[in-house]
Amino acid sequence: MDELDHRLIAELAKDARQSSVELSRKLGVSQTTVRRRIQHLQEHGIITFAAIPDPVKLGYSIIALIALEVDLGSIDAVSASLAICPNVRYVSLCTGNHDIFIGAWFHSSGELTQFVKDHLAKIPGIRKSETFVILDVRKDEVGWLRSLEQVDTSGS
């Protein structure tokens, strides 16, 4: 990747619906170059395009991060169980005092309470949970964690 690719990605991150005409004008290159670069970035999995829903506009008034302490032998089973929950939008394994972080959307605090009591409490291997309700988001750079999926953790 060169400087042009980085500038193109920055422009697309601002507004992925910009036309090739707009992008070529902003970047000072031809439309063909823009289209070719975007195609290359997509083919190599460097960028992807998606519709990002706004949870508040969809009626979810509670957005929560939930940190879990899990029995080490249960991490895969617990994360798989959480990943299929309709309210859960994000599941990550991590280091530190917690083993798994999840992000979830709820229509009400009652729905969050029900999720904790009726779902989390019944998943074998979860020792402890800590719930954080998001009050306000000041920056939300979509996909900022996606690059971790490609990190080589084998130590080579």
Task: Describe this entry's structure for a reader.
With 156 residues, this protein is of the alpha+beta class. The protein folds into two domains: 3-43, Winged helix-like DNA-binding domain superfamily/Winged helix DNA-binding domain (Arc Repressor Mutant, subunit A), CATH 1.10.10.10; 54-156, Alpha-Beta Plaits. Helices cover 34% and strands 19% of the residues. The protein contains five helices and four strands; from the N terminus they run H-H-H-E-H-E-E-H-E. It has a four-stranded antiparallel sheet. The radius of gyration is 20 Å and the shape is elongated.
Task: Tag the structure with descriptive keywords.
single chain, 156 residues, alpha+beta, Arc Repressor Mutant, subunit A, Alpha-Beta Plaits, four-stranded antiparallel beta sheet, 4 strands, elongated
Write the CATH fold name of the largest domain. Alpha-Beta Plaits
The DSSP helix count reads 5
Judged by helices, strands and strand pairing, the structural class is alpha+beta
**What low-confidence regions span 5 or more consecutive residues with pLDDT below 50?**
147-156
CATH homologous group name of the largest domain:
Lrp/AsnC effector binding domain/regulation of amino acid metabolism (RAM) domain
The percent of residues in helical segments reads 25-40%
Specify Rg, calculated over alpha carbons: 20 Å
Secondary structure: number of strands:
4
SSE topology sketch:
Blueprint (H helix, E strand, L loop, with lengths): L2 H12 L5 H8 L3 H13 L18 E9 L4 H9 L4 E6 L6 E7 L2 H11 L6 E8 L23
Antiparallel strand pairs: 1-3, 1-4, 2-3
Helix pairs in contact: 2-3
